[in-house]
Every structure is written in structure tokens, then in C-alpha cells.
Amino acid sequence: MSEDIATGQSWRYRAPEGFEESRLVVGAIVRFERGENIVCCSVSKLPRKLNGAAHETITLPFLPLTESAFRASVSEQDGVGDLPESFPKRLLMWAEDEKGMVAFKVPFAGNLEQMVELQFGRRTDAAREASEARIVEIGNILASGLETEIEPFPGTQAEFETILKRLRELPAGDIKGKLVIGGFLNHPHGADQMRCLECIYYLPHRLWCDLPELDIPVEPYWWCRLWRV
Ligand code: SF4
Fold first, then answer.
1. CA of residue 25 to ligand 1 center, whole Å
2. Residue of the nearest CA to atom 4 in ligand 1?
3. 201: CA distance to ligand 1 center in Å?
4. Which residues of 148-178 are buried (b: 16+ CB within 10 A; e: fewer)?
5. What is the C-alpha to C-alpha distance for residues 137 and 205, in angstroms, rounded to an integer?
6. pLDDT by residue for the chain (229 residues), tens digit each?
7. Which helix (H) or strand (E) holds 119?
8. Reduced to 3 states, what is the DSSP secondary structure of residue 202?
């Protein structure tokens, strides 16, 4: 049981050296009669690598962890913490996802890319090379100034589904159509600097977007309006 874990708590975790102020803040605990509880958190002051050795910190609005992954991540409780405004919306979208409430089963140590690779598989160089060849082509389309529908961002599951439906209606191989309807940008977006790397659909070992309606290679620093964690 998880009586000692409660919403609003702020927890220290095994953050990278120099970023010890980063915290996991518990926003919700989803309990199941059978199966493991899920602890839904946000992450404050999460380190993110910029070019070269430089770092910045961002807020990761939503990170679902199984209770055992949460326990393996944290070291001690540190009072209460603030959740970002977008947390309730992210929680609702995650809870309504038709794929079910997907949660990370591996510990969080301040490196989301590493965590995703641990859970979804390590990189295979052959697959990555194949993606890299196509990614140049798609990157050129975006860099050409293609105007895409970055607004409105789908605030509800119904709005999300409407975009998916439009994507399904595209002719096979219509990459430009996917980029336009998906609202692609070739850089991070918004106050939280959202990008593919932190999106649940991103497969870093293949540089690939695994959302079936997109199913294309993407760079980790790109973004589209179907982004979710
Ligand atoms: S859904 Fe959009 S943001 Fe998420 S990985 Fe795919 S392209 Fe990137």
C-alpha cells in the first residue's frame, strides 16, 4: 500500500550531480484493486542538455511511475511542492488514453531519455541509421517554411481524437499532410519547451514517433501538437 505517499508531497530523488534541487512532486495516486498503484508526478528543475556541455532546467508537467518505480527513484520526502498548471489537464488526457494508463516501470534519475530507453529498449544502430536517412528529408520540408497547424492544442481527448481522425484520412505516404495536421515544429514549443524526447510516443532508440497515425522518424528536439506524457 502507499499510505506514506500522498498528493502534494515533494520528494528528493537521485538527480544528477549539480541538480540536487530537482524534485518529484506527487500530483495524484491511481490505485487499483489488482495491479500496482501508479504515482503521477511532475518534475521541477529537471536538467536538460543543450548543445555541448551546457544545461538548462525545465519543469516536466507529468510523469507517471509505478509505485515500485517511484520508490526506487526517491530518497527522502522534502515537504510539499507545487504542481504546474498543466498537470490536471495532462492527468485527464493520460487517464482517458485508449491505450490505457501507461506508466514507467523503471526508476527516474533525472534523465528521461535514459529512462525511456531502459523501458522501451536500447538503441539498435541499424534501425537508427534507417531513421536518420529519412529524417533529413522530413527536416528539409520543415525547414522550407511549411506552415503547420500548431494551434489549437488539443485540450481534451475528443479534440485529440479529431486530429487523429483527420490524419487517418490522409492518402498513404502523405508526409506533408501529416506535418501540417500534426502541427509540427522543428524546435521545442511553449513555456515548458515541450519536445518529442519527453513525449510518450517517442522511441529514442529509433528516432521514431510511435503514434500509429504519424509513424515517422522525428528528431528528439522537434514537437507536434499531439505531444503527451
Ligand atoms: S506525437 Fe508528436 S511530439 Fe510526440 S513523439 Fe510524435 S511527433 Fe513528437
1. 25
2. 227
3. 6
4. beeeebbeeeeebeebbebbeeeeeeeebeb
5. 19
6. 445 999 999 999 988 888 899 999 999 999 988 788 999 999 999 887 655 555 778 888 888 999 999 998 999 999 999 998 888 888 887 887 766 777 888 889 888 777 777 776 655 566 667 777 788 889 889 988 899 999 999 989 999 999 999 999 999 989 999 999 999 999 888 877 788 888 888 876 677 898 999 999 998 889 999 998 7
7. helix 112-120
8. strand
Residue 113 CA to ligand 1 center (angstroms) comes to 14
Segments making up each domain of the chain, as ranges: 9-110, 125-209
224: nearest Cα among 144, 150, 136, 131: 150
Q: Could you list the beta-strand ranges (E) of the chain.
A: 9-13, 23-30, 38-49, 55-66, 74-80, 202-203, 208-209
Q: Which residues have CB under 6 Å of ligand 1?
A: 196, 199, 201-202, 209, 211, 214, 218, 222-224, 226-227
Cα(78) to ligand 1 centroid in Å equals 33
Q: Which atom of ligand 1 is nearest to the CA of 200?
A: 4
Cell of 10: 515533494
Residue 182 CA: nearest ligand 1 atom is: 2
**Residue the block writes with cell 479529431:** 162
